[in-house]
Amino acid sequence: MKSLTIVLTAIVLWPWHTARAQTSDLAGYKLVEPSEPLPDKPWHDHFVDESLKTPEGQPNAGAAWCDFFLERACANQLQRTAAQAPWEQWRGFFTCAVWGYLSPDSKFRRDERLLQMSQVWLDTLFKTLATKPDDPKAAEKWQPNQLDTWSFHDYTVPLLEAEKRPWLKEKLGAGRIAKLREIVLANVRANTTPEAFNDLMGRAENYINIITHPMAVCVHGWLLTGERKYLLMAHRIVAALGRDQLPNGMFPYRYRLYGDKHCEYEAMYYHAINLRGLYLYWWATGSRQAEAIFRKSAPYYPLNLEPPHFFNDGPDIWWKDQWRTFWPHHIAMVAAVTGDGENAAIANAMARSNVSHDRFDLVLGAHAYQQMGLKRVAERPVRTDYVVVDPDIRGVRLRFGRWSATFTAGSFTYTRASAMRVRDDLKDFTALHLARPYVRVEPLEKPFRIEPDYSTLGREGAEFSVAKLAQAAAVATAYSPALTPATWQDEQPLAPWTMTELWLLTDRGMVGLLASVATADHQARELCHQFRFIIPGNADGQSAGEGLYTCGDLRFRVWATDFPFAVQERMRRYCQSERDRRDWQLCLSDANRSPEHLAQDPPPPNQPKPTLLLPPTRDYPKGSRRHSLVEVSPTSTPGFEAVALALQGRVLALTARHADRHYLAIHHEGDTEERYAVTGAFKIESVSASWTQQPTLPTPSDGKLVFTIPPDGTALV
Predict the structure, then answer these.
(1) What element of type H or E holds 66?
(2) Which of 136, 332, 666, 690 is the Cys-Cys partner for 715 at CB 3.0 to 4.6 Å?
(3) Do domains 39-133+141-374 and 386-716 have the same CATH topology?
(4) CATH fold for the domain made of 386-716
(5) CB count, 10 Å around CB of 119?
């Protein structure tokens, strides 16, 4: 015990001024020159201030959910929650317990049960870390005392609190805390050798989130030891975040791995991970660089979450297709660091509605919400009534009230167009999940985890052009869909089709023209245009007349098509199980076939297997053509009164009319200029064209307008 006391005393009295990194300490590390002065001492070296309580009126989702899990743990019911484990085995228990024991925000403050349970938790952890797994595959990779670096803060945050308070260390058991510290620092050293760190940073050149997951290794390694090299490593990670951040705050999931045009959408989960790492660094250092990155990130949540808090996942890569709102704690971090009122409004709405009741980053969330309250961050209404070009998603966003629409042409996306109508009670939503052409080459009856056909954009995404007015936009693209299961192969085949999409997005709804043309003779089983919906209660779309369907709070109408068949079917998402067919789809098809769910799923118990119509492989001559003209609009407003094609030569165009407004959307995909004459007995109020630098063009007084449209040009009248 005497030797242990000497070790602990040395820890408490660590001389920060002697912790400067020597040149020899940095040999072999690929670091960057700091873009700002780095601190000699931490700005903060722990999170819980026992004298501070979240001010009255400021909700705190992190505190509420920490208490929820602690309550269930004390009742031995934690395995019935999102923790999915007994409290002795749940990774997050110790950090919640230490926070709960210390924080004035917890109803468990000074509850001695938490310390007794923490002792058991630590003893269980030590035994688990020292025991080789029975599973042979796990045993091959096992190393004694190896911690998960992606959740490293679950170990270091409570350790930092104990290191700050010798009395707490004694209550938990000084020997236990010394052993935890020893294990933590051994993992810090193992994961920050020049070889390990340089390898990680090398892989992060095109894959940023893999360096922010383990941020606590570097940041808290610095706090626990004072060794400056760990601070320099953390700074390198922050510099990489700032390097890759896009104009509206997104950090790409994978970026420029396949060339300069490759950019994958960052789903809400990964944005949260990146912000968590940034928050750990900011709180420890007070870095202005980290604060600037937070400020640049402020538009992300207001653009991606439809008020009050529903995640619009239309721009996502196909294997992250979820439409699930993730945690509010990281939104609170943005508000706490920047004082941004929109993010505060979203974080507070999620706290009040108890949304995303999950086990993730609860203590850090409790801290961020408390900081919001202490800084008196005022809520500001989340932006609405806009049409914007969003470079982060390579597309366009529109939101008017509870109606929103999105267009994207990003890498590996599963749809160009999507839309959402939030329910009036703000508790659910209806969405146009996807609208896309699909080339089937594999047997329909073959169940799949990954779509086996040509259904998504390739690694470079697609080019698009847009013409924008105050309440509407015309946006168009042309591409060849990629073979989805070949996403990660060196070469990803493209279908021998050109798919052109022209979408009119307005404050009252959207109209889309999908045109498909075969570019070579080939064989396939089916060409179809799919329109898939997320409907509350996993309901079906309801027929409301010829070509007209009610889908929750959205109407869907097929105004024109030359496909001979319309197939209603239940569809699954990649992130769900093969049998979880929660979406309803209308498929306009050239094949007389059975719905996918009947072809692939076994019949219900005691029911005979249905007779199936399966599309055989057949020839598609070069020049084969199909098109669809559809409307998606909220049922809360009248739909379009008339929608029609308005083609002239090789120029695609559509018209759409409301009672008081008439739109003409035009797109030319050829390789030479084309003329297009606007005809009709109406007054032209506004004009926009993609090929000019002017936001709008002059309107002719005589109502006559003739465009000379360049290749890939788009116009809106």
Answers:
(1) helix 61-74
(2) 666
(3) no
(4) Beta-galactosidase; Chain A, domain 5 (2.70.98)
(5) 14
Largest separation between any pair of C-alpha atoms in the chain: 97
The two tokens of residue 104 are 């004035």
Would you state the structure tokens that stand for residue 710, as one six-digit string? 């360049």
Q: How far apart, in whole angstroms, are the C-alpha atoms of residue 594 and residue 636?
A: 33
Q: How far is 345 from 358, CA to CA, in rounded Å?
A: 20
Q: Beta-strand (E) ranges in 395-496?
A: 395-400, 403-408, 417-422, 429-440, 454-456, 464-468, 472-479, 482-483
| pLDDT tens per residue across span 165-221 | 999 999 999 999 999 999 999 999 999 999 999 999 999 999 999 999 999 999 999
Please name the amino acid found at residue 406: T
Q: What is the DSSP letter of 701?
A: T
Q: Are 314 and 414 in contact (CB under 8 A)?
A: no
Q: Find residue 322's DSSP bridge partners.
A: none
Cα Rg, the chain, nearest whole Å: 28
Half-sphere exposure in the Cβ direction for 197 (13 Å, CA) = 26
Q: What is the pLDDT of residue 85?
A: 96
The domain ranges of the chain are: 39-133+141-374, 386-716
Nearest Cα to Cα of residue 177 among 110, 121, 103: 121
Q: What is the DSSP letter of 22?
A: P
d(CA 123, CA 486): 47
Strands 417-422 and 403-408: antiparallel
Contact 263, 247 (CB under 8 A): no
User: Mean pLDDT across the stretch 477-498?
Assistant: 97
Domain 39-133+141-374 has what CATH class? mainly alpha
Amino acid identity for residue 470 in this structure: A
Confidence class for position 13, pLDDT limits 50, 70, 90: very low
* Separation of alpha carbons 391 and 406, rounded Å: 12
Q: From the centroid of its chain, how far is CA 342?
A: 18
CA distance 457 to 468: 24
